[in-house]
Amino acid sequence: MNCRRKREQLKALVISDTHGRIERILSLYDRLNDIDMIIHLGDYESDAEQLGDILETEVVSLKGNMDGSMDRQYKVMDTPCGKVFLTHGHAYGVRMSFSAIADAAKKEGCIAALFGHTHVAVNAEENGIRIFNPGSPTYPRDGSDGSYGIITADEDGFDASVVYFGGPAKRPKGGFLRNLMNYSDGF
Questions:
Q1: Cα angle value 21/65/90 (rounded, 5°)
Q2: I need a surface site. Which of 61, 91, 149, 183 has the fewest CB within 10 A?
Q3: Plot region of 185 (φ>0 → left; ψ -120 to 50 → alpha; else → beta)
């Protein structure tokens, strides 16, 4: 995605669905280079606060369904390339389709939508909007050993990448019925 603005670079660690387990992020953080901030996309927001305190770094966070948020809570974050839409994703039906989250991001004038909730990493495009989910570092649902994301934004563009702890995901076999059983909590 190309940018027209000319500003400095932003590099952020993007995580979601830590669910009370931040050990991997703590051990990972020191090995990452030039991270400006952490973006925590929900489940659990208290983990985000704890990471900010321990690592003494800026953390942008929001609540997920496991934090008691049942509405379409979101934040719009400015980057050197343009606005980015942040949400947990549960209220946008992200398990079935990315159209609602892409529409919401577009309505806010954003170039990308970052979300969590599914515990499955995604790096795609929907209706001209970058759709990005870092997966879960602690409770992945994609057959991987967990993942996180790195985003960079500068005058040349916006980039997002998924990084796996133990190699790429090995998707479990199954289809509609397996999906129903995995996500029978209704969110």
A1: 115
A2: 183
A3: alpha
- Neighbouring CB atoms inside 10 A of 101's CB total 25
Return contacts of 51-54, CB within 8 angstroms, 24+ apart. 51/22, 51/25, 51/26, 54/26
Distance CA 121, CA 151 (A): 14
In terms of Cα–Cα distance, which of 134, 139, 130 is closest to 149?
Answer: 134
pTM: 0.86
If phi over 0 gives left and psi between -120 and 50 gives alpha, with beta otherwise, what is residue 36? alpha
**In the chain, what are the domain boundaries?**
10-182
CATH no. of 10-182: 3.60.21.10
Residue 92 three-state SS: helix
